[in-house]
Structure formats: structure tokens, C-alpha cells
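Lab channel / #folding
Pinned by the channel admin:
"Please post every new chain as: sequence first, then the C-alpha cells as a reply. Keep commentary short and put observations after the output so the thread stays searchable."

First post following the new format, from NK:
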Amino acid sequence: MNKTPDIHSIPGTFVFDKEHSRKGYHLNMFCMSLNDEANREAFRADEKAYLDKFALTAEQQWAVLGREWLELLRLGGNIYYTFKLAIFDRISMQAVGGSMCGLTEDEFREIMLTGGKDLQGNPRNGPNVLGDEK
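Reply from TO:
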């Protein structure tokens, strides 16, 4: 019997399927709007007022204003769109990834360069994205 795995049961993972896409549509359209210089200037001038132009939930607005990267994904954001906000802030992908894992940018970069292992080649110990010990 073929049994399709439950992709929504993967801990710490937000699968960007059609339901998640619908949930984050306005959030992702806000992020896409940052492609335009005039929109970036308007957002820079008054972030809250600019966000009010989009049909974001209060939770989505809070996540944008607080730059809560993992929450943006949980609330329907697509990493490719939400990263436009990081680019706006001149934040690297390593800094965003690190903040999602409770690491500094340098710690996250080191882990990526070592395939998730410390400098001695041992699997990284410590909190994962969910805050659980590995």
C-alpha cells in the first residue's frame, strides 16, 4: 500500500502548499512590493502606515515590524519573498538563518560551512529551530 507521508508533521517546517500560500498571500505581496524603490522609501518613512495598505493580520504586521523571521514563515511567508525584507534591512541570509536557530550570524555560517558539525567534526549540539536539544 502506498502511504503518502504527512509533510505537515515535520517538526519546525512550514510547508509552502496552497493553503499556506493563501494564508500568506498579502504578506508575500507586501514583501514583493519592496522591489520598487518608491515603496521602499514609503516603508522606510513609516513602516506601520505602509503595512496598513496591505490586508495583513495583526500577527503578520507584528512579525514584520519585529522582524520575526521564523514567525513570518509560520504565518504564510515564503522564504524567497520574506528575504526581500531582510535585504531591505541589509541583513544576510546567514543572519536570518542564525536568528531562526538562536545563533549568531558567524555561528550559523560556521555550521553551514561544516555541514552542521563543529570544527572537530562532531554533530552540533544545542538547541535546534524548535528550541529542543539535539
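NK: The chain has two domains: 16-90, 92-134.
TO: also worth noting, The domain at 16-90 is CATH 1.10.700.10 (Protocatechuate 4,5-dioxygenase; Chain A).
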